[in-house]
Inverse folding.
């Protein structure tokens, strides 16, 4: 059984980019007779708001993007993440990191191809004696081998990435004691029995470290398909700042089929902008018709 998923973060209202990823995740699973699991990714207590959870669920229903079950919210899954950390600890793969933000962002820090800072391994070789002299921290990193991880993305094709060269030892538990996204998403997708992950291309570079975590934790990985980003006319990624493109605004003037139709047209699923429901699109959905390049969204004309 195919199991796809929605994994919204309740830090704001959905914007067109979130709708686009959710629509393609839904179409991919439903067109194969599969199920959808909904999981609220509220690991960040400062940014997650219950009001946004309610709004996001209501927006998905309004769009016609339904789901079969709701998994436990990430904020309630601390025990499962600690169990996974214990497994990594037993394999001697964890160590505490004492580096400050300033140390990590030092001018000499190596950078990955997308601008992220690669951890230089500063705390990797500390002795127990040296650790005892540092102020305590809950931040944990995982030792990654000098391996390359290769996989075939459902839309972007063959990928290969060096774990040390592009990530270095990455954080699996933050200094505030909360599990890091890379660990939580792997533990949760495995627990939910997810067989396919469809998400934005901004997460493509995270996939190799997640695949590596699946392997060391003895879990079965899903397939991955990374969809294009939606860009504003000035070339920025659409974000929660683009209020005119969030559903709170769009729902004032548009029926749901117009929102779905706009995204389906811009990504190549239909030939012109018309009102269409997700169920209608699922009838002949084919990934080969979806474009892989990022998509510029002009501010939609509210009078249409
Ligand atoms: Zn460190």
């Amino acid at each position: 059984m195919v199991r796809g998923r929605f994994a919204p973060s309740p830090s704001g209202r959905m914007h067109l980019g979130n709708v686009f990823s959710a629509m393609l995740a839904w179409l991919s699973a439903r067109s194969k007779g599969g199920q959808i699991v909904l999981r609220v990714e509220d690991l960040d207590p400062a940014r997650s708001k219950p009001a946004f959870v309610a709004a996001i669920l209501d927006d998905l229903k309004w769009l016609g993007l339904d789901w079969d079950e709701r998994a436990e919210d990430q904020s309630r899954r601390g025990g499962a993440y600690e169990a996974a950390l214990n497994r990594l600890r037993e394999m001697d793969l964890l160590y505490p990191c004492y580096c400050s933000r300033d140390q990590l962002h030092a001018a000499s820090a190596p950078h990955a191809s997308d601008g992220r800072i690669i951890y230089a391994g500063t705390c990797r070789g500390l002795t127990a004696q040296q650790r005892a002299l540092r102020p305590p921290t809950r931040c944990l990193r995982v030792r990654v081998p000098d391996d390359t991880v290769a996989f075939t993305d459902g839309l972007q094709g063959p990928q290969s990435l060096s774990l040390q060269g592009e990530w270095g030892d990455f954080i699996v538990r933050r200094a505030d004691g909360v599990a890091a996204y890379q660990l939580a998403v792997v533990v949760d997708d495995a627990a939910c029995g997810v067989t396919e992950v469809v998400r934005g291309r901004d997460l493509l570079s995270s996939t190799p470290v997640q695949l590596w975590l699946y392997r060391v934790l003895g879990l079965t990985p899903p397939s991955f398909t990374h969809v294009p980003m939606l860009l504003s006319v000035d070339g920025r990624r659409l974000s929660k700042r683009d209020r005119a493109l969030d559903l709170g605004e769009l729902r004032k003037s548009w029926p749901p089929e117009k929102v779905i139709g706009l995204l389906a047209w811009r990504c190549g699923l239909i030939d012109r902008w018309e009102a269409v429901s997700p169920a209608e699109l699922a009838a002949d959905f084919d990934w080969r018709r979806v474009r892989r390049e990022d998509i510029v969204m002009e501010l939609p004309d509210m009078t249409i």
Summary: The mean pLDDT is 93.
